[in-house]
Amino acid sequence: MNLVLPTRLIDVGNIDDNMVRLVDVKKCSDGHEFTYLILSYCWGTGNETSKTTEVKLEARLEGFEVSELAKTIQDAILLTRTMGYRYLWVDAICIIQGSRGDFQSESSRMGDYYSNAECCISASAASDSSEGFLRPRPIVRYPTETFALRIANDSGDGPKHFVFRDNNNSPIFIKALLDSSLTQRGWCLQETALSKRILHWTLQGLYLECSNSLFLEGSKIPWDRSWDNEAMPRTILARPNNDHLVTHGWCQLVSIFSETDLTYETDRLYAIHGIASLLVERLKIEYFNGHFRFGLAHGLLWYHGNTKHSSFHYMRDEKPVEVSLPSWCWAFACPVQHERIRQKPIFIHDDHPKRLRQWPTRPGDTSTVVSPVSKLYIRAPIIQLVIGRKDLGYMVDESSGQQVNFECSFFLDRERDVLKKMFHHGMGEEESVLWMPVGKQLHHDTNAVVGLLIYEVSGEDKGTYRRCGVLTYVDFANEELLMDLKEITLV
Q1: How far apart are CA 222 and CA 427, in angstroms?
Q2: pTM for the complete prediction?
């Protein structure tokens, strides 16, 4: 299997060179072995002079001064030379920037670039590219040592003394890594999740990370991360259960990623496409605008918010939406979390007569990041409910005409010209809504069913809907309604 190499690399030259040059890999690949390092860093405001534009490209292929680059990139070049490597990949230099650049084609391959690099230089010490990361580290000047404390036991029970031994593995040290500006950057998640090896340069010390271990500078003992209960992207991707990985695992990754910052919200799907492509090829599954075909039911049940909800919640317009995405795509609503449902039963079905036979991103072709196709064809039940501000609602039994009361909780999405009383004037006493059940809630004692709130779009073909929220019906008993499937086009 041939490795996907970057289109361009920086030839860093020798240790004392003042110049570097940009290399077109395809024009030089006749038997030439390209091994390279790759940089993960915060751009900030200090990266303008580093950018390769269409105007600068030819000159940079001839050679250019290291001094014209941001300090973080200068440090990365020095480190690459010191480590004995000739080539380095940096996005600002190796991707042509600007409206006539090649970001669109390069972005779909960036996951491969990080996966195939020998090592990723993670500039965690710098919150701006102008700062650099090769700075004095306290742990070098003041190395830590293992120690033990013996404390007397005055209770009269058990031993006379207790011995407490420090394992040189305090969460305080790792906090510098987990809380760095870099980890808050959206692109960082796939850069560090996909790299084989990472050198994390922090102000507290240097960390070496490989596929399953993390070492603090000067230590041969892997870092004990048992205290860390957070789901880490590398840990999620290493899960052996493929079904779980592409359903709950992917939802976890999306939730973590959705909390990160991007300069341009339009980059949201691009910045996680490398991980999506990895799963597409590994698991031989299809992907479409942030969702996997196999795990579609789980992926659709996103909601905006940082806490478990109850009663009425409205997703306020905290971030400007700069890109036209379908209403079912989580990328327009970050940050998001997901309702968890059981693997079975699933009430939506991928057998609509107009469904796409192949989704845009699939094994052997992962070049599509954001598909211009916005329609999702499924079959599912649609049930009319009446809900209010409190955790109560009702539906009318069609056979008996009787009112059936129920408990519920729900979130509403960004405004979609629907439920205007809720959005603009506050929730009234009650509101009639359409509910599309998706699956049964995980870890719930009652027969709770989770589904999407949807509304029919005027001016479109019959059966065309947009989502406008998520609703959990706490104790759903009428199973027959779940069998009445409608042809639905979600846009």
Answers
A1: 54
A2: 0.87
- Report whether the peptide linkage leading into residue 143 is cis, meaning its omega lies within 30 degrees of zero: no
Digitized pLDDT (tens) for each residue of the chain, 491 residues in all: 568 999 999 999 999 999 999 999 998 866 568 999 999 999 999 999 999 999 999 999 999 999 999 999 999 999 999 999 999 999 999 999 998 899 999 999 999 999 999 999 999 999 999 999 998 877 677 766 666 788 888 877 878 888 776 655 566 667 777 788 999 999 999 999 999 999 999 988 899 998 878 888 877 778 766 655 456 888 899 888 899 999 999 999 999 999 999 988 899 999 999 999 999 999 999 999 999 999 999 999 999 864 333 444 444 444 444 557 999 999 988 999 999 999 999 999 999 999 999 999 999 999 999 998 889 999 999 999 999 867 889 999 887 888 999 999 999 886 544 454 444 444 456 889 999 999 999 876 678 999 999 999 999 999 999 999 999 999 998 999 999 999 999 99
The rounded Cα 273 to chain-centroid distance in angstroms is 9
Query: What residue ranges do the domains of the chain occupy?
Result: 8-136+173-229, 242-490
Q: How far apart are CA 473 and CA 396, in angstroms?
A: 14
Residue 383 near residue 477 (C-beta atoms within 8 A):
no
